[in-house]
Amino acid sequence: MTRKTKRVKLYGLKVSPGLGMGKVCVIGEALKAPRWRISPEQVPGELQRLEDAIAKARQELQSIRDDLRERVGKREADIFDAHLLFLDDPYLRDGIRKRVTQDHLNVEAALEDVIQESAKKLSSVKDGYLRERAQDILDVGDRLLHHLLGEKQRCLVDEENDLVLVADQLKPANTAHLDRNKIKGVVTERGGPTSHAAILARSLGVPMVTGIRQIVETATLGSLAIVDGYRGQVILNPLARDIELFRRRQEELALQFAEEEQLKALESATADGRRVHLLANIASDEEVNLALAKGAEGIGLYRTEIHFLDREELPREEEQFEHYRRVVEKMAPRPVVIRTLDLGGDKMARFFPIPPEDNPYLGLRAIRISLAFPDVFLEQLRALLRAGRYGDLRILLPMVTTVEEVEEARGLLEKAKEQLRNRGEKYAERVPLGAMIEVPSAAVIVRDLLKVVDFLSVGTNDLIQYTLAVDRSNVEVSRLYEALNPAVLRLLADLRAAAEEAGKEIGICGEMAGDTRYTAWLGWATPSSA
Predict the structure, then answer these.
(1) Which among 148, 157, 137 is positioned nearest to 100, based on CA atoms?
(2) Is residue 353 part of a domain?
(3) Greater confidence, 482 or 48?
């Protein structure tokens, strides 16, 4: 295919905010595994080559993990613990050895067969989170193949300082080494907002746009590209006017960031004097320091499911308690809203015995999973109640659709208190219980819900998606995902009115709350907005 050299404007999914410009650097060119038959005498040598490659890959992965933990944080570094688990997986290792010893295949071919077979199995499952783990297996296999062939992964134009990485699908190992001073943007054809690469890109502050078809074939190596992670826009071979607009926006953003730095210490209020509390969303206790540095007045949402993913067994009560306690203690006396387990949809832990679902986003997920597995839920509730002694902790139930769900959850909360009393454990007697409004049914019955909860949090990402029947991760219809749709605004206005009538707090959570384009529209916020 002839690569285009004229100006091309493309739109995809915005998975990491930011604005960057640099020369196109194509990465992730696949290596081809050679294939031949070996003699029985060659088997020991091939098996030793496998062990040597595994040892080199392990050392490399440990180095990446430790470096990332120091530069970014434990959560992002833990991604590579999953790679190390795959590296030592007996199924993968024994499968390769069997093909070498019994089928008399060279180790490269044996590796490719086993890796592709394993990735194919994962790719066929309906759970979105597990499907994305297929890329982790391919990444591990690619790393081993590079060591077997003596090849090194490198950027094709790595002598340049300002680069825009272009790939079919970016691997976490590539993203882990991103130098923010050198890499100005990332563009891929595949990979969603929950992929490890997207998580790392956001943590490192690198703008990333995905979902752009045939980007590797379309982009010209070494040509200029602009990546707009705020709009999900990519311009290849930009004209002078594009570059001028880019420079102007950069200056505007720099001024905006400087002003925000000065304003963060001031009280947040509207021009007419309405107080609005700005809180941070976090996914691990390591992010609390960053939230405090940015001037957060508390934690509006702590996503606890991160502690349940990429592991072989459930996190026990004591482990959960330590995570929650650290957050609550560091933020005290500021409020900390901790959401109970929100698995399902594109996030599923392997130890939950849930059969495949035709539509997991509308299946057993969030509060439904907690109520379906009460022992797991009780363990989390006990950990939360114990952590509540160290500050202002509040419990939030995700994806509530009925009053009965809240009543059942409250009953389990009381049971958790009784269990702690019987154990002689100290805990917080009064912990506010809230509901997350993420689906239209909850918004319609909000006045009934307000009778059984202490506060509300509006999850705008899902509420917009379900109200408009638009999959926001689908490039074909993502343009219809519009926060300012009149139906959405009317729902928000009614939620605000209902909360004011009940005299209870309501917060806004999701991308809408963090986008300054919507700030004026959210002036309806009641005393607490996250």
Answers:
(1) 148
(2) yes
(3) 48
Q: Are residues 390 and 280 in the same domain?
A: yes
Task: Find the CATH number of the domain harbouring 406.
Answer: 3.20.20.60
- In the block, which residue shows the tokens 């691990």? 284
Of 83, 147, 196, 277, the catalytic one is 196
pLDDT given at position 20: 93
pLDDT beyond 60 at 474 = yes
Q: Active-site residue among 83, 307, 323, 509?
A: 509
Any residues with CB less than 8 A from the CB of 49 and at least 6 apart, and which? 107, 148
Q: Are 128 and 166 in a shared domain?
A: no
Token output for 20: 């960057």
The larger pLDDT score, comparing residue 312 to residue 414, is at: 414
Looking at the fold, whether 479 and 351 belong to one and the same domain comes out as: no
Of the candidates 8, 12, 519, which has an alpha carbon nearest to the alpha carbon of residue 278?
519
Regarding whether 438 and 424 lie in a shared domain, the answer is no
Structure tokens given for 525: 């916020």
The DSSP symbol for 344 reads B
- In this structure, the answer to whether residues 210 and 134 fall within a common structural domain is no
Tell the residue number behind the tokens 């202490």, with chain if given.
454
Give CA–CA dist 82/53, Å, rounded: 18
Pairing of β 183-188 and β 280-282 = unpaired
Buried/exposed 432-441: b ≥16 CB within 10 Å, e otherwise = bbbbbbbbbe
Q: Coil, strand, or helix at residue 516?
A: helix
- What are the tens digits of pLDDT across the range 213-252? 888 878 887 789 999 998 889 999 999 999 999 999 999 9
Name the one residue in this structure whose structure tokens are 């209870």.
504
CB 511 within 8 A of CB 461: yes
pLDDT at 468: 93
pTM greater than 0.85: no
Per-residue confidence at 1, pLDDT binned at 50, 70, 90?
Answer: very low
Q: Does the annotation count 196 as an active-site position?
A: yes
267 SS3 class? coil
Q: Is 146 a catalytic residue?
A: no
**Within-domain flag for 251:** no
State which amino acid sits at residue 327: V
- Give the SS3 label for residue 221: coil
Helix (H) or strand (E) holding 169: none
